Amino acid sequence: MTSLSSVSGSVMSVYSGDFGNLEVKGKILFAVEYVESLKELHIFVAQCKDLAAADVKKQYSDSYVKTYLLPDKGKRHKKKTSVVKKTLNPVYNEILRYKIEKQNLKTQKLNVSVWHRDPFKLNSFLGEVELDLETWDWDNKQNKQLRWYPLKQKTAPVALEAENRGEMKLALQYVPEPIPGKKLPTTGEVHIWVKECLDLPLLRGNHLNSFVKCTILPDTSRKSRQKTRAVGKTTNPIFNHTMVYDGFRPEDLSEACVELTVWDHYKLTNKFLGGLRIGFGTGKSYGTEVDWMDSTSEEVALWEKMVNSPNSWIEATLPLRMLVIAKIAK
Predict the structure, then answer these.
(1) Whole-prediction pTM value?
(2) What are the tens digits of pLDDT across the range 43-74?
(3) Which terminus of the chain faces fewer neighbouring Cβ atoms within 10 Å, N or C?
(4) Which parts form a coiled-coil structure per UniProt (predicted)?
């Protein structure tokens, strides 16, 4: 049992790519031009500077740049550069071309993202830039010049690298009075029953050794973290593991959030597979705006049912997704 003693603490969030936590930093130099004679959109990707280091020990990333014309997420609208290895300041000097009528660009957004290429072929996000082509002035010569853009955190529409990450079958229960009849006021408990995961992605051929971590945000201390045992050799692991967190006052239910993440354990490293964040999804906690209070409608629905049905198990099967993971405090 873990106490929620620091439920009103602060959280520092960094973006979690598929391999550990990567801070989004640095900038990218590129230019955009529509070539009338070819009826093509050209994106000249020159270079990046001061990228985050995917390899922390050696301080480098093996990076490439990828573009999409949103809202189309299909392969037809995906272009990418070659990979430049072992540097935080890669130079590409490549043109990415789209065959498209100029008038059709008015309904498009250009998404330019930078990724670290990993040998396991599940890549880590390093930052992005998004341009609204509806308002882009194609006649402005300055818009055709190379320009530095600061890389930003991932926005919702570009969860494009995240393919199907599988699902988690679980149940939640809120117990407002764990010790019935006690005269002194008591805090409640939240019980989290992780039953199984379904159709998890394979990172290492046919090998998988998965486990689930749980943290109750905004408490990022290690005492807030619990985890299941690892289950190997299956993409449909059955955990059947219950985690209990105490210290919940009724008002904490509106401010806290259950973060469940699934990992593949291999040798000395853990590879991120996907996660859930179950709460009210208000974007705030104890009056402070936070990135992690970002529950989907399905995740919010499960939390609401739990809060409104005390002492009852509420079951759901939810799709796993990418998360901006709250950094665990030491």
Answers:
(1) 0.54
(2) 999 999 999 988 888 888 999 999 988 877 66
(3) C
(4) none
